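Here comes an entry:

___
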Amino acid sequence: MTPKRLFLIVLVLAALWSGYWLAGAQGAKVAIGRLQENMQASGWEAEWSDVALRGFPNRFDVTLDEPALAPPGGDWRWTAPFFQVLSLSYKPHHLIAVWPNLQTIELGGESAQVRSDRMRASVVFVPGLALELDHAALVIESPRLQGDTASARARELRLAIRPTPGRENARDIGITALEPRITTYPGAPDVAARNVRADLAVTLDGPLDRSALSRAPRVERVEIRSATVELGQSRLRVTGDLAAGRGAYAEGDLRLVVENWRAMLDAAVASGLVPQRMAEQIRGAMGLLSSGEDVDLTLNFADGQTRLGPVSLGPAPRLGSGD
């Protein structure tokens, strides 16, 4: 093959690849515009000041400047200086999401700043137009949350999600917080845990795809395979299986095993998480239920109520919004 012919072949291939990238870039911009329109039509606030697309020739790197996002009803609102979605041009169904080091969340009339050293997620969709989520993983290094009064931080926060084998519309969710610390008000001692881990299986009423933005999927079942909080010399372990009943109130049982419960309660009172007057009631009840420093009890949720044996403890939690 002559050098001239080889040059022509390379030139043609480069032209074809450039055309593919330009077509993909244009398609990405159209998709972003349609996503924004669909979200706004469904009642979401979805705004940004500009959209930039870079990465030629091997990447599609999308940057949204000054994004603002809030669900229908405005229960919360998120804003940031920018948000990025990165992907390889030959693997568009695998995305890398990048958040800035500073973000703002408004919740319940209060505003909180979220800071981190690094926050990224790997998101993989099932190939196709439905954009159904296959699996994802989020890692936040040194997250710090500062509200008007309370604050929280951790060494690292991880979240992973994947399909639950053999169960339709269900996802396995793993959550790990390394060395989390919570301050309930200025001057209060921190609630410092060694680790917090949770292994869950959550079943929704439909697929987790692009349609979820408009139909707001509901939680039908939460299986807590294991949830553990290690606080000083104390440990709380939770297992259970809850389903959404009438009004989305939880129905089912939760088993709670607390090791060295007195030390855990003392730490919660000192930090302000549990009021002193409530602590005395808890001490009395736990003293009857425990045989020492450990306690093993089961909470039952039924008919919209939470019960410990025959004693009603108040309304049951909701797994979602009720009708």
Observations:
- The helical segments are 3-41, 212-215, 261-271, 276-289.
- The longest strand covers residues 219-231.
- The first helix runs from residue 3 to 41.
